[in-house]
Amino acid sequence: MKGDRRKALQLYNTGLKLAKEERLDESIDALKRSLSHDPYHVNTYNLLGKVYIRKGEFRKAKSSWKRALKLDPLNPTAISCLNALKSYSLLSKFRDYIALITAAIAIIVAIIALLLR
Q: How far apart are CA 41 and CA 11, in angstroms?
């Protein structure tokens, strides 16, 4: 039932409590139900994004924060979370490149060792 802000707030608070208890799937369920009652509650989208991050669901987190920004383009929480997600993504790519370079060096060293026998 849309438009029941009091129910939405109760579900938001339940989702927050569950997230603090690391009951992430239950938290997500409560937060989604909260949004069904009040789809304009920016804090719910922000919290949902944070819970998704804790589950490793980066795309869903990004989507939640983008939705928060559609409702409030200057929302500092959504902005900082999206920026942190971008930084994490860049760091992750950097680590992948380092791993590839390390593997290539190991192969080159093995080839040199074979040639020097």
A: 12
d(CA 76, CA 79): 5
pLDDT digits (tens, 9 = 90+) for 7-30: 999 999 999 999 999 999 999 999
CA distance 21 to 41: 22
Domain count, the chain: 1
DSSP H helices, the chain, are 5-20, 24-37, 42-55, 58-71, 76-115
CATH number of the domain enclosing 83? 1.25.40.10
Tell me which residue of 75, 64, 74 sits closest to 39, measured CA to CA. Answer: 64
Domain residues for 50?
5-87
pTM: predicted TM-score of the whole model, two decimal places: 0.75
